[in-house]
Write a structure and sequence with these properties.
Immunoglobulin-like, alpha/beta, transmembrane, disordered C terminus, cysteine-type endopeptidase activity, single chain, 22 helices, 8-stranded mixed beta sheet, EF_Hand_1_Ca_BS, 4-stranded antiparallel beta sheet, Rossmann fold, 40% helix, 752 residues
Length: 752
């Protein structure tokens, strides 16, 4: 088992790393000598790398940054950085600058006052850094060199390709350091290559961005993707592998290098935000019992797996979780209910259910549940919301200077499900807020008593499964077991339920999305503009003689206008408005496929095609921003699912009911069945959504789609003289919309 800090004898029982963690970031992008080209990346490198290294949830380093400092200041800072260290300290030194060599091929790091003709006195010699590393008592040192080894000399002289500075030779003395001291040198490229910044060798000052190398390092640490073995820690070997793969996507000819000198074991540099757990294989006997035709045997498996959910071996616990999820669909109601109940007792719980911040005053969230639930990773919804996660405690604070009320959320995702905790920040104003502090202490006492009822840990799953009477109402298995305690706590913390709510305004769409939605919706209005009365047919079937003229009350123009209005107010209405736009877009796409695919487009072929393409683009933009999280599509709450299915059946009947001439819309085109298919396909993920944002915007989309569908069925009554067609369509759409709306009051399902 690898140690957490690269030194087995230095790892604590809780996995924390002993010793100080200190980083020095040296970045130089401006040079006094005109022969040294100005770089763009180093300033961005310093800011991005310092941020991720200092993040307590990632690097936890004490970071010092030097930007455009003279050579003497940097030499002093480097010597001071390595001096007076303890053996258990972890030191990280990062250089982002030009790399030059003298006539003997020795490597120098160019800084602000470097003169290429006087490297020994004006640049930082690699040998100087080498000596400081060798003399340091710290046993764990990592050196990152993001340098261009082909930096230009003044007056048109260039570095010779055959004599590039050799990093391995420059730091070869590190191999002689005894005592198991681990020194690792990582460079952005090999000795015969340039290090690219921003994907280009020649930098462009108008486009500041981190270099390809440092950008990949920051991305790997920030996202946790560099943790390739999923153990919760990022080692240097893993990091270099990730960075190399990422760089090759941009510049295939750049190859980062890593040299280790006297290193023992993997040097773990940062924590990973993402914890990937691989389920352990179940015992063959257990698998056979799960497939037994005897319900009693399968019921016994549930009892065994319930205990495994609390196993400290996360692989075993995750395997038990997956097996129980599978058994919730068991043919035996007793077995399925027992499996659902077992899962509910092991779900992730968060206390409190909502957070109110005032100014910079921090707050804490506490996680409870079995070990597998506590692996959930926290992520903020907005940049101003800062998190520091330490085991089952998440410290929340805000960096928001604008006065007023700001809303965000903390998302917790792990194998045992997801939770979203609303966060409300109040920043007092400068002039109008002096009277505001008195009211603020009144909400303050409420968080005080809140910790009293908070459960310190998950309750042991001793409750027996046979709860025949409470489950007779057919909610989704174990949901009532958690729904009732949650309702009891809500009034003390915040009246808004944990379940999705159409009043959820925590999410603020980015401006680029608003611009795309407004432009696309306005274009749809233009394309679907009715024009002069009876000038164009919305669709026309020559076989049956059916047709419909474009008017001001057809669903195409109404859907476009509603989408435009929702796009305009989306910045304030948030998730709901985005869902309305999504419902209009889905309606336009379904209509285009129906009319064009059914061969009844008549005068409107190009208009339908353009509407479909534009609506697809709007849908893609919405999905990119909203990132829907649906999870398993079963189980869902049976009453809501029953209404949606019943509505879909009525919509099918609406398509096959004949009009006064004895012809049904299905006979005009079989694609008439698209309406019920799309309605149910859009509603079902809304029932199965696993987070508040997804449930809210999908619900708004379904209601909007159903409303447009009802409007589209009016001609069946006014022109087709078919009350049956209109009524089945009306009640069908109404049932689908009602099904998703009533599911808002239910606790969101948790899926691994």
């Amino acid at each position: 088992m690898p140690s957490y800090d690269g030194m087995p004898e230095r790892t604590g029982e809780d996995g924390r790393m002993d010793g100080s963690r200190v980083a020095l970031v040296v970045a130089n992008d401006q040079y006094d000598d005109p022969g040294l080209k100005r770089l763009v990346a180093p300033s961005q490198d310093a800011a991005a790398l310092a941020g991720v290294l200092a993040d307590p949830a990632v690097g936890g380093f004490e970071v010092q940054v030097l930007r455009n400092a003279p050579a003497q200041d940097i030499r002093f800072a480097v010597e001071d950085f390595f001096a007076d260290r303890k053996p258990e300290d972890l030191l990280l030194l990062h250089f982002s600058c030009h790399g030059l060599k003298n006539s003997a091929g020795e490597l120098y790091l160019a800084v602000a006052d470097t003169k290429p003709a006087r490297l020994a006195s004006t640049a930082v010699a690699a040998d100087f850094v080498n000596r400081q590393m060798a003399d340091s008592r710290a046993q764990r040192i990592a050196l990152f060199l993001d340098c261009c080894y082909g930096g230009a000399f003044p007056r048109g002289m260039v570095v010779r390709a055959a004599g590039e500075a050799q990093v391995q030779d420059a730091f070869a003395k590190q191999a002689d350091v005894g005592g198991g001291r681990g020194r690792v040198v990582i460079t952005a490229s090999s000795a015969m290559e340039y290090a690219f910044e921003g994907g280009q060798l020649a930098s462009d000052a108008s486009k500041p961005a981190p270099s390809v190398f440092t950008g990949a390092v920051v991305d790997g640490l920030t996202t946790g993707e560099a943790d390739r073995d999923g153990d919760g820690w990022v080692g240097l070997t893993e990091l270099v592998g990730f960075v190399t793969d990422r760089i090759h996507r941009v510049t295939p000819n750049q190859n980062p290098q890593m040299w280790t000198f006297g290193s023992q074991g993997e040097l773990l540099i940062a924590r990973s935000r993402v914890r990937r757990i691989t389920p352990a294989p179940l015992a063959p006997e257990l698998t056979q019992a799960m497939e037994s035709p005897l319900p009693a045997a399968r019921f016994g498996v549930v009892d065994y797996l319930r205990e495994r959910l609390y196993d400290a071996d996360l692989g075993q616990a995750y395997a038990a979780w997956q097996a129980l999820r599978q058994m919730t669909d068991d043919d035996s109601r007793k077995v399925s209910e027992a499996a659902s109940e077992a899962l509910s007792t092991a779900e992730l719980k968060v206390t409190p259910s909502s957070v109110d911040l005032v100014g910079t005053t921090p707050a804490e969230l506490r996680l409870s549940g079995p070990p597998i639930a506590l692996t959930a990773a926290a992520s903020p919804s907005d940049p101003w919301l800062k998190l520091a996660q330490d085991g089952d405690v998440i410290r929340v604070h805000a960096e928001q200077s604008a006065p007023g009320v700001h809303e965000g959320s903390v998302a917790l995702a792990g194998p045992a499900g997801e939770r979203v905790v609303p966060v409300r920040l109040t920043v007092p104003g400068t002039e109008s807020e002096p009277p505001a502090p008195p009211p603020e202490p009144e909400p303050q006492p409420e968080p005080g008593p809140a910790p009293v009822p908070e459960p310190p840990h998950a309750e042991p799953p001793h409750a027996e499964p046979p709860h025949a009477e409470p489950s007779r109402a057919e909610p989704s298995g174990a949901e009532p077991l958690l729904a009732e305690p949650t309702r009891a706590k809500r009034p003390a913390a915040q009246p808004r339920p944990v379940a999705a709510s159409l009043t959820d305004g925590a999410f603020v769409p980015p401006w680029w999305l608003i611009a795309v939605l407004i432009a696309g919706s306005a274009f749809l209005v233009l394309v679907n503009w009715p024009g002069a009365p009876y000038s164009r047919k919305l669709w026309y079937d020559s076989n049956q003689g059916w047709y419909l003229y474009r008017t001001w009350y057809d669903p195409a123009i109404w859907g476009s206008l509603v989408a435009l209005l929702a796009a305009v107010v989306a910045r304030w209405a948030g998730t709901i408005a985005l869902g309305v736009v999504a419902g209009c877009a889905v309606s336009a796409i379904e209509g285009a496929v129906l009319i064009v695919g059914g061969g009844i487009s008549g005068d409107e072929t190009s208009a339908w095609a353009v509407s479909a393409v534009t609506s697809i683009a709007l849908g893609v933009a919405l999905v990119i921003v909203l990132k829907p999280s649906v999870g398993s599509l079963w189980p869902v709450w049976p009453p809501a699912a029953g209404l949606v299915v019943a509505g879909g059946i009525l919509l099918v009947l609406s398509a096959v009911v004949p009009h006064s001439d004895g012809v049904s819309f299905f006979e005009v085109t079989p694609l008439a069945l698209l309406d019920p298919i799309v309605a149910v396909a859009l509603a079902w993920p809304a029932l199965a959504a696993v987070d508040t944002r997804t449930k809210t915007w999908l619900t708004a989309a379904v209601v909007t789609y159903s409303a447009i569908g009802i409007l589209g069925g009016v001609p069946a009554l006014t022109q087709g003289h078919s009350a049956a067609d209109f009524l089945t369509g009306l009640f069908g759409n109404a049932l689908v919309a009602t099904g998703v709306l009533i599911s808002l009051g239910r606790r969101l399902p948790s899926h691994p």
